[in-house]
Amino acid sequence: MNLPWQVTPELDTVGVFDFHGELKTPMTAHTKEDPITGELHFLSYSPFPPHLIYYTASPDGHITRSEIIEGAGPALMHDFAITADHVIFFDLPVTFNPAEQSGIPYRWNDDYPPRIGVMPRTGPAVVRWFDVEPSALLHSTNAYVDELGRIILDGPRYDRTSWESTWKWWVGAPGYSTVPGTGMTAYRWILDPATGKVSEQMTDDLVTEFPTIDNRLVGLPNQHSYALAFPGSGRSDWAVVKYDHTTGTRKVAELGRDRLPGEAYFVPAEGGTADDHGYLMSVVSDLGSNSSELLILDASNLDTVAAVELPRRVPAGIHGSWIPDTDLPA
Ligand SMILES: [Fe+2]
Fold first, then answer.
1. Which range marks the domain in which residue 145 is found?
2. Distance from Cα 81 to the centre of ligand 1, integer Å
3. CA dist., res. 275 & res. 207, Å (int)
4. Cα(263) to centroid of ligand 1, in Å?
5. Is 29 helix (H, G, I), strand (E, B) or coil?
6. What pLDDT score was predicted for residue 170?
7. Total number of domains in the chain
């Protein structure tokens, strides 16, 4: 966590942006922008109390709300989710542990009760905590309220084995394993505020991470989502996967061995409204030839539209973004 850094449209660094002096803590990189109101939601989490602070900011960059979230613990909260009506916190059993020597002091903790917290976006900052099965979640795919009033939350969920093997891989520590098909798979939690009950299940067996959707649907029902996939054993063969959540089907575009993609960022086609009418953009690095390209896929069928050779290898950035010129200030 840090303060965010501001860059120009040409990517020149301006400096840190502290929301006009109004943000006094670091914040996480994973923000949620409400597609209807333009309001920005984000978190600050800490090993020490207060463990979790929730913020909102206006489109012109002023903090509009800050709430200490009572009851949250020292969990790794890399991401969260919103619906049109709720903020959703992941208080899951990867927690601060100074004994962890891999580089980031968080470790799976069997003694930590796993919970997902749901807070209304308006009114008092009261969180309702739902007990869930032990798991970890680095990135949420999306969340929304369905026609029955239940909260649907999707994300690539880790079990203990997959967390402990991939964590070493993420931080570059030796000793990671490549166990086929363990955890780190598409998963759905259904939280029912009427009954207080949770149902949860794996929705696909492909190993995935870095989920994306059409960001016009953040917090709203999405038909499709996308992710990076690790077919086979895991960490040397790569693919982009598209899920259709209404049919429960997937389509996979294999990239090949040692062709490492960044997040497949969805860009809507001009005038397109469907959440697969557009393009997926990913910077793909070929680890064998030390080169990179900007790969553009048709989101409807994952066919390659273009592969733009870049003048030099781009360090694997994992996440991605695309801001159209029309969204930039004149
Ligand atoms: Fe991330």
1. 1-204
2. 13
3. 23
4. 10
5. coil
6. 72
7. 1
Q: Tens digits of per-residue pLDDT, 251-264?
A: 999 998 889 899 99
Distance 194 CA to ligand 1 centre (A): 32
Give residue 79 CA to ligand 1 midpoint distance, Å: 7
Is 220 inside a domain boundary? no
Q: Is the pTM of this model over 0.85?
A: yes
78 CA from centroid of ligand 1 (Å): 6
- Residue 123 identity: G
> Rounded mean pLDDT of the chain?
93
- For 216, list phi and psi in degrees, rounded to 5: -70, -10
151-194 pLDDT, tens digit each = 999 999 999 988 887 777 777 676 665 554 467 899 999 999 99
Q: Supply 289's token pair.
A: 């030839």
- Residue 173 C-beta-side C-alpha neighbours within 13 Å: 14
Sign of CA dihedral 68, 71, 77, 83: negative
Residue 232 lies in a domain: no
Say yes or no to pLDDT of 37 above 80: yes
Q: Does 267 reside within a domain?
A: no
315 occurs within a structural domain: no
